[in-house]
Amino acid sequence: ALRGSFAQKAQKADRRFQYNFQPRASYKVAVLGAAGGIGQPLSLLIKMSPLVSDLHLYDIANVKGVAADLSHCNTPSKVRDFTGNSELANALKGVNVVVIPAGVPRKPGMTRDDLFNINAGIVKNLVEAVADNCPDAFLHIISNPVNSTVPIAAEVLKQKGVYDPKKLFGVSTLDVVRANTFVAQQKNLKLIDVDVPVVGGHAGITILPLLSKTKPSVSFTDEEIQQLTVRIQNAGTEVVEAKAGAGSATLSMAYAAARFVESSLRALDGDGDVYECSYVQSDLTELPFFASRIKLGRKGVEAIISSDLQGLTEYEQKALEALKPELKASIEKGISFAHKQT
Ligand code: NAD
Ligand code: LMR
């Protein structure tokens, strides 16, 4: 009887832990770069989603072990591994959402743009395979420099004749996650309540948190605005320096990317109330790509929320103008890379 009751308690613990994971829909997600610092914890978090039936893990190496390991979790989704270019097409067939965290991360002293020479080619090759095998999938780009890799992806998809701007996303969720955390800490707010839109791009001064639009409404001194803005813009570098050569943000990034995947799946599943910030093709400014709040729907970006750019403070307006030349140059660098390769 004692054994029985322990068994029941263990089962109850498992059920309690699992109750969020009861299957609610069946979408297929592929992670390209799944054996990496981001790829592994991201794949774990996606394995916990009740909206996922199949999880395809692709990398150029070491992905068999990651998949074997993850497949032992008693959550519903099936995990499959795919190694190397010859297995890439099969990793992508029938997939609804593709997430790309493949590529090299920064070391101290580097900018995200210093990663361009290696990561641009990696993203180009992977997106070509996406175009050939699952052109209708939502495509989430994490690989840096995001300001350039998203325009590269757009050009590759155009060259293949399958570009749908509503389905291509630069993942800038981590900037929002950081802004929410830092503002809640600074202002002693309940974390769950805080939402700060972050617009522009995903590098240095192109990351522009709109602190005046923070929900709940909260007032900041000029010093607080300056200090919080700079902290949010340099948060990636803060982690790169703390890791001292061992890479950049992976765990917080996995958390942020998993949130964006879950939001995309909810939108695909018909939830009509899904909003996220993302770096997308946009007509909010004169730049062809811009991060802002968007509404997600079954077909991808359903609306770009323009109200965030109205009624900016003088500080925000100046910062917006100041970021445009750098963001424009990064976009053009991506586009011309994609054209040179053809
Ligand atoms: P990592 O080196 O730990 O992992 C990268 C993985 O990509 C490795 O497993 C590697 O084998 C794989 N890879 C390399 N070339 C590949 C290819 N052609 N196809 C498939 N996989 C390939 O790096 P990480 O820490 O996971 O970071 C990955 C990228 O994400 C970096 O470019 C980093 O700058 C970026 N990043 C972006 C954000 C963001 O907010 N968007 C945040 C953190 C990191
Ligand atoms: C981040 O913001 O943490 C990432 O873009 C990684 C980096 O290089 O800072």
Task: Describe the overall structure.
- The termini are far apart.
- With 342 residues, the protein is an alpha/beta fold.
- It has helices spanning 2-18, 39-47, 63-71, 88-92, 116-133, 146-159, 173-187, 222-233, 235-243, 251-268, 314-340, and strands at residues 27-32, 52-59, 78-83, 97-100, 138-141, 168-170, 198-200, 207-209, 274-281, 289-297, 300-304.
- A 6-stranded parallel β-sheet has the order 3-2-1-4-5-6, with helices on both faces. Strands 9-10-11 form a 3-stranded antiparallel β-sheet.
- It has 11 helices and 11 strands.
- The structure holds nicotinamide-adenine-dinucleotide (NAD) and (2S)-2-hydroxybutanedioic acid (LMR).
- Nicotinamide-adenine-dinucleotide binds next to helix 5.
- Keywords: NAD, Oxidoreductase, Tricarboxylic acid cycle.
Summarize the structure.
Helix content is 45%, strand content 17%. The chain is α/β, with parallel strands linked by helices and 342 residues long.
Query: What small molecules does this complex bind?
Result: nicotinamide-adenine-dinucleotide, (2S)-2-hydroxybutanedioic acid
Helix percentage = 40-55%
- What is the H/E order? HEHEHEHEHEHEHEEHHHEEEH
How would a crystallographer describe the biggest sheet? Answer: 6 strands, parallel
Averaged pLDDT = 96
Unreliable segments of 5+ consecutive residues: none
Radius of gyration: 20 Å
Tally of extended strands?
11
Q: What fraction strand?
A: 15-25%
End-to-end separation in angstroms reads: 72 Å
* Spatial order of the strands forming the largest sheet: 3-2-1-4-5-6
What is the SS-derived class? alpha/beta
Helical segment tally? 11
Molecular shape? globular
